[in-house]
Amino acid sequence: MHTSQGIPIDAEPYAFELVPSECALLIIDMQRDFLEPGGFGEMLGNDVSQLRRTIEPNRKLLAAWRKAGLQVMHTREGHRPDLTDLPPAKKIRGRSKTCIGDAGPMGRILVRGEAGHDIIPELYPLSNEPVIDKPGKGAFYATDLHAILQHRGIKQLVVTGVTTEVCVNTTVREANDRGYDCLVPEDCVGSYFPEFQQMGLKMIKAQGGIFGWVCSSANILPAIF
Ligand code: TIU
After folding, report:
1. Which residue has a Cα nearest atom 7 of ligand 1?
2. C-alpha 84 to ligand 1 mean position (Å)
3. Residue 177 · residue 183 · CB < 8 Å
4. Does the beta carbon of 30 sit less than 6 angstroms from any atom of ligand 1?
5. Rounded average pLDDT per 10-residue block, the chain, 225 residues
6. 84 occurs within a structural domain
7. In the annotation, is 155 catalytic?
8. Considering the entire predicted model, what is its pTM?
9. Which one is catalytic: 23, 99, 167, 182?
10. Where do runs of H (alpha helix) occur along 16-143?
11. Is there a domain that residue 4 lies in?
12. CA 222 from chain center: how many Å?
């Protein structure tokens, strides 16, 4: 997987060899439902302010990726308006009074086409950037992400977004099993829980990079200019 043309990025557990033409930026679930008050995240009892620190570093990384003409993809977690793709177990999990599909302040919670389901304006996708709508936590489950990456010759992923231990970790694990090398910039991923942020990143880079690499986005930016 590593080629001699790679640009070494200082990372843990060791340098990541970035090959820009084969590396997509994959931004996970930077949706209003997770980052703004009234959405799914807050419905689960979480403090959404914990995630908002990732917006600015993501904005900078996204701008650099676009300027360099490299590939960008976005994901959104959510369900069909008729909820036929919503597992009953997921709907009732948490015993919340308001469930996925119910009316919230930004439309129906985690339903495709509703305002809360959409990506925050700061990171809004361009028309040439595929948006993967996923019903699960992992971006590969029940989506065409793997096919799109294969058609585009992508072998590496820089994975950012929310939340670190849930959709980011699940996606990195799924990508790793499919043969992709994943680099996770720690300032561009966020958790509602500081201890999960720390451990979620540790789990990725442990055991010689069992799932991938971790670094700061500041280490990636110079490589793509
Ligand atoms: N609850 C939580 O931490 N995350 C999710 O439900 N979805 C994502 O991580 N996107």
Report:
1. 167
2. 20
3. no
4. no
5. 76 98 98 94 91 98 98 98 98 92 95 98 98 98 98 98 98 99 98 97 98 98 92
6. no
7. no
8. 0.97
9. 167
10. 32-35, 40-43, 49-52, 55-67, 88-92
11. no
12. 22
